[in-house]
Amino acid sequence: MKLYDFQGAPHPRRVNIYLLEKGIEVPREHVDITTQENRKPPYTEKNPVGSIPILELDDGTCISESVAICRYFEALHPDPPLFGTTPLEIATIDMWLRRVELSLMSPVGTVWIHDHPLTAGMFDQIKPAADQARITAAFGYKVLDDQLGNATFIAGETYSIADAVGLATVDFAVDLVGVPYGDDMVNLKRWHEMVSARPSAAGKLPTDFDF
Ligand SMILES: N[C@@H](CCC(=O)N[C@@H](CS)C(=O)NCC(=O)O)C(=O)O
Predict the structure, then answer these.
(1) Same structural domain for residues 68 and 92?
(2) Residue nearest (by alpha carbon) to ligand 1 atom 5
(3) Same domain flag for 97 and 186
(4) Which of 42, 147, 181, 194 is the most exposed place for a label (fewest CB within 10 A)?
(5) Ligand 1 centroid to 10 CA: how many Å?
(6) Residue 206 has pLDDT above 90, yes or no
(7) Mean pLDDT, residues 115-121 taken together
(8) Would you say the CB of residue 52 lies under 6 angstroms from ligand 1?
(9) If you take atom 6 of ligand 1, which residue's CA is the nearest one?
């Protein structure tokens, strides 16, 4: 088994946070996305979408999509549960996971593509798309801040995959993309500091990341 990884990039980082929380060790192979190694064979033979991460099993089967990879490990190693165990926990965690994905990661990714100097040479940047995405991300942050005023973690009183994905997303947004949450979002700040202090939070992108 091997994880195709780029240390610190937000989607592989979800898996890396998850694996550290679970105490699972997996061999890694570095894929250099800065040279677009992931956009050509042999990588695209393993994942036609070209995205990282991929988990390659010993029989050559490849699983892409960060959350799908985590679900695979969860089925193999159910304890400690990070996707919930009761029907309500499972649904609640999935609901918050989807909210983090759709209300935060998606608009932050749009700002990264359409308004960041590091991606200017890679895409035809459409600034109004980024402006709209900043508004959507601010709403996503507010939803999280409100939730975290009533709950210790994103999906309730226990750490879950929603927190792993949330941390990878918020660090990417704040440190690299330039989409910070507001100073008034004290609940989100409390959560951000708390999950950042866990050993699983190691492995951020360097703040001077460049390509
Ligand atoms: N939905 C995918 C998204 C993966 C993704 O966008 N990965 C980024 C790195 S964080 C990537 O592959 N970037 C390089 C590229 O798209 O060429 C997942 O959750 O794994």
Answers:
(1) no
(2) 51
(3) yes
(4) 42
(5) 8
(6) no
(7) 94
(8) yes
(9) 51
Whether 109 and 143 map to the same domain: the answer is yes
Helical H runs in the chain? 10-22, 43-46, 66-76, 87-100, 106-115, 127-148, 161-171, 186-196
Secondary structure of residue 181 in the 3-state scheme: coil
Distance 77 CA to ligand 1 centre (A): 25
- Cβ of 47 closer than 6 Å to ligand 1, yes or no, is no
Is any ligand 1 atom within 6 A of the Cβ of residue 37? no
Q: Which domain holds residue 10?
A: 2-76
Task: Count structural domains, the chain.
Answer: 2
Q: Is 62 helix (H, G, I), strand (E, B) or coil?
A: strand
Distance 99 CA to ligand 1 centre (A): 18
Q: Is 66 in the pocket of ligand 1 (CB under 6 A)?
A: yes
Distance 169 CA to ligand 1 centre (A): 12
Query: Is the beta carbon of 51 within 6 A of some atom in ligand 1?
Result: yes
Q: Under a CB-based contact definition with an 8 Å cutoff, are residues 70 and 15 in contact?
A: yes
Contacts of 184 (CB under 8 A, 6+ apart): none
Give 2-48 pLDDT, tens digit per residue. Answer: 999 999 999 999 999 999 999 999 999 999 999 999 999 999 999 99
Q: Residue 189: how many CB atoms within 10 A of its CB?
A: 15
Which CATH number is 169's domain given?
1.20.1050.10
Residue 211 lies inside a defined structural domain of this protein: no
Do 118 and 181 belong to one domain?
Answer: yes
| CATH code for the domain in which residue 61 is found | 3.40.30.10
Query: Are 115 and 143 contained in the same domain?
Result: yes
